[in-house]
Every structure is written in C-alpha cells, then in structure tokens.
Design goal:
Two copies of one chain form a homodimer. Chain A is an alpha/beta fold. The first copy, chain A, folds into two domains: about 170 residues, Rossmann fold (3-Layer(aba) Sandwich), CATH 3.40.50.620; about 90 residues, Pantoate-beta-alanine ligase, C-terminal domain (Pantoate--beta-alanine Ligase, Chain: A,domain 2, 2-Layer Sandwich). Chain A has a six-stranded parallel sheet, with helices on both faces. The first copy, chain A, has a three-stranded antiparallel sheet with strand order 8-9-10. In chain A, helix 6 packs across helix 7. The longest helix of chain A has 16 residues. The radius of gyration of chain A is 19 Å and the shape is globular. The model of chain A has no long low-confidence stretch (mean pLDDT about 95). Chains A and B meet through helix 1, strand 5, helix 6 and helix 7 of A and helix 1, strand 5, helix 6 and helix 7 of B. Strand 5 of chain A pairs antiparallel with strand 5 of chain B, so a sheet runs across the interface.
Chain lengths: ~280, ~280
Amino acid sequence: MEIHRTPGSMQKQSQAWKKEGRSIGFVPTMGFLHEGHLSLMDIAARNADLVVVSIFVNPTQFGPTEDLASYPRNLERDLELCQSRGVAAVFTPEPQDMYGPEFQTYVTLEKLPNHLCGLSRPVHFRGVATVVSKLFNMVLPDVAVFGEKDFQQLAVIRQLTQDLNFPVRILGGPIVRESDGLAMSSRNTYLSSGERASALCLSRALEGASRRVKEGEIRADHIRREAEKEISSHPFTEIDYVTLCRPDTLEEVEVISGPTLMALAVKVGKTRLIDNAVLTP
Amino acid sequence: MEIHRTPGSMQKQSQAWKKEGRSIGFVPTMGFLHEGHLSLMDIAARNADLVVVSIFVNPTQFGPTEDLASYPRNLERDLELCQSRGVAAVFTPEPQDMYGPEFQTYVTLEKLPNHLCGLSRPVHFRGVATVVSKLFNMVLPDVAVFGEKDFQQLAVIRQLTQDLNFPVRILGGPIVRESDGLAMSSRNTYLSSGERASALCLSRALEGASRRVKEGEIRADHIRREAEKEISSHPFTEIDYVTLCRPDTLEEVEVISGPTLMALAVKVGKTRLIDNAVLTP
C-alpha cells in the first residue's frame, strides 16, 4: 500500500494510474476509521480498479468553536485498516500543504447549505465543498463514495460535482450502525457511558417516525413532535434540529406524500451527533 | 476539426484523448476571434499535442447593466479561423447546458477580485472563476492559455488553479496590438471612428508611463496623474481606474521599486476598454 503525504506526489501517482487505463475509486475521510468507512472502501473497490483513501482532518470545515483540536486521530491504526481492506494508496497531507499562505479560493453553494447542519455550522459546507474539489483534482477519481449518515454533505457533493462538471461518479454508502442502533461515527468516542446510552435517542426517534409513517401518519409536524418527545426523554440531550424535508433539495415538507428525509442533530453532553432515515409511506 | 456542442460530448472526447496519452492545450474564449486569440492558439499548439478552443459568451461574468446581449458574435467566421490554425476541436455549448435550473455552485476568490476591474464589476470574477473551473473539468487540459490583456483574469486563474489543485499548467500570452498601438479586443468593434481615434489614449498613457519609469521616475502618484492627463485630453473618454500595483497580489504601490503593473480601464463612449503594461525601472 502506498502512502502519499503531499498533493504533488498523490496527483502524480493518480495521473500515472489513469495513463495505464486503471480506474480509481476514492473514499475521502477524516480518519479514526470505523466499519462505516470500511464499507465505503468496499463499495469503491466494487466500482473501480483500485481504491484511494484520504485521511485529512480538514480545518476549513470546522467553525471556531468546534472540535478541530480534539478531533480523534490514530493514523497507525487507520493505515492497518486500509491495508487489511486492500486499499492501493492512502493520501494523508499536512494542512500547510493543502492551504498555503496565499490560499483564497472557495467553492460555495447557494441553496443546499441553507438547511439542516448548515444553519448551525455556517462555514462547514464551504469547507467541505472546497476540500472535496481539491481532493478530486489531486486523486482524479472515476468514482467517489460518501456515507449517507452525512446526508447533506452527500447532497452538496452530488450538486457541486454536477455544477462544476467533475468527471466523477458519486456513490452513497448506507449508514452502518452498532448492534443497538447507534449510527457509527468517529465522534462516538467522545461519549461517556451515560451519554452513550442516551445517544440511542436518535435511532429510536427515527425508528418511531418510520413506524408511524408506515402506519399512515402524513403530518410532518406530528412526527417531529413525537421525535422531539423521544429525544428529550433521555438525559444529557439537547436538540439542534429535527427536520422532515425533501431528499433532493432539503426543503422542509408539511405533508409526507413520498419518500421524505428525516434528519436529526442532537447534542449529547458536549458531543453533537447526527442521524437520518428516508421515511417511505 | 471537431465541433462539440454539449459538455458531455466534449468531456467524452477529452477523456478519450487522455487515454491515448495525448496532451491537450486549451484556449477558452468568448468568440469574435482576433489575432490576440489566434496567438494564444499558437502558444497552446507549441505546448501540447492538440488544441481545444471554447467559444462561450458566459452570462455569469456579466453584470446586469453590462453588454451580455450585445456582445459581438460570429461563429461561422470563428470556426474558419480555428480550422485555419489547426485546432483539433471547438467546444461551443449553449448557456442552458452550462447552467441547469438547479445550478448553485460558484468558485470565489477572497482577495484578487478586490482590485482593478473587480471594483466596478462585482460579480465578474466569480463568473470567470466558475466557468473556467467548469471548462477545465470538461476539456481536461494539460495546458491552458490566457491573454495578458486581461491581466487580473490571468492572476485569478493562476491562483484558483493552484488553490484548487487543477492539474493544469497556466500560460499567459502577450498583448497583441493594432499597428497604431490599440490593444486588440472583441469590444473594439463597438467603437465609432471618432472613438477609435480616442481609444489610443490607453496605449499612449502606458507608453508615457513606461518611458518615465525608464527615465528614473519612482513616484506612482506622479505617473498616474500624467496618465490621467493624457487620457482626459482625448474626447469621449471617462476613466474607470489608472492603477499601479504589484503584479502578483495586485496591491497598489506608492513607490516603484521593481516590476510594477500599470493597469487602465477607460470608457470610450459607451465602450469600456482595458489595457496594461508591466513597468520596469
């Protein structure tokens, strides 16, 4: 397995692979890998000749009060996991090689970030869109795979790929959950044991909503209130949002008339967790 | 010579050329080609296996009061000129195929547009940066060539290419002038014969400044005032800016201590003309 530490070295290798006619499947990550990430690597492997994983905790997608400094890292373990999954190359650059002193170019979206996480994380999706554009130009993938847990991120990336005509096919990977239902996240490591128990409120609220919609409930308001009740019944929880919206534009809906995204963001102690499900009547 | 009218068709052809190991030199234009454009094609041809020219009057780089509707067009003549210059493919898309109804992604720079033309054309460089990023992803060039007449545009494109890591080498082509000194521009066609005579004020002002700096003048203020005097002595002229600045950051200078960009924008009648020169002590 190759390890590339600079944009130039990664780009050169990718260009060489393309010249050989080999297709590249790409999984961008911030490291501290879990089964969710590994499932994305498997999807990439099934859709391309070789897999590249990036590990980069991207500073421009964190707000000033967010957890950039404390974000969990374990490169040695990450590299072992990538190797065990047959990854061809890991790209793990330093921030100063990604953002030089004259850096000033950003990729911004005008609509999709004005919903869900974008409301409480104002610079987040600008940072994501910019770093993903940079990574696409370094790794030159034919296919890139992103987790559906970050549903809004996936929507942003699909849109920017289409709008800027990147020659990349975007695939989503289904949410991977712990046996009790908690969606896997590198940030779960922040949770105390009491918080870990309360964190189940997210998947429980989604399960309840899914059941109610199957039973014929169509009032988004009602489903949202029931979810809020479920979440608030657990200690340490503080709701950021509970939203029912269109999966394509992320615009809120009042009536559930087709597949509807239910997205949650909840602080459990100091840890902000997200989860989502598409509810189908 | 191939003619591609959709992004998908262009991108597919470029991907095929790349797979064959052929390098692509790219000249993006808004058409109504003149000797300046043709000189860029020659530079592209010397630096790549084949040349692609795009002809697209990009709506997003025009402000609401600017000349989008009246911008001169002559596709038939443009295609003949490209053919005569040995161009491999012309890419001439329709606006609706470049910007679909859900289009919402822009490439923005935080510093370089806050000078020169960016001050009176607030959306211009966002439009340029976005369309060039899109064109790079469609044409997949190894080399792209831009005229030095649009000096700030060239600076913006160099910076975004570096910041977003596009695998493209950017080259500038020297300004091409009419025999009397007027910098070639598709917009020169707007000038009446009286305005055409007055339009010489730009190159004259630059020549005067160049001579003064060679003679030892180092006060930017003094050089600017002399240039303004020259321009104002011609009828139909209205100065937008006369600026002496650093060629890299475009920040204004007070003292000329090294190569200094002198950039001019002047309205001659209703036609806004630009010109520039690097003054060297």
